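User: Please fill in residues for this 63-position structure.
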């Protein structure tokens, strides 16, 4: 079931900062809506946890 939540709740769900969510929204990577007051609400698909973005960090050593 799709559920629209506040940026704070979405940031906790995805494990990222709110500014990252805003950037992803601007880049079209997340599904969101705007309230009549122009506030963002982010979609969380509770039935499909695979829709959660995967973030990987790779460090390359020069040695």
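Assistant: Residues filled in for all 63 positions:
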């Amino acid at each position: 079931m799709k559920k629209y939540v506040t940026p704070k709740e979405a940031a906790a769900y995805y494990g990222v900062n709110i500014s990252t969510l805003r950037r992803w929204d601007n880049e079209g990577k997340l599904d969101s809506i705007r309230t009549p007051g122009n506030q963002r609400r982010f979609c969380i698909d509770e039935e499909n946890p695979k829709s959660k973005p995967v973030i990987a960090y790779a460090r390359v050593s020069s040695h």
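For context: The radius of gyration is 14 Å.
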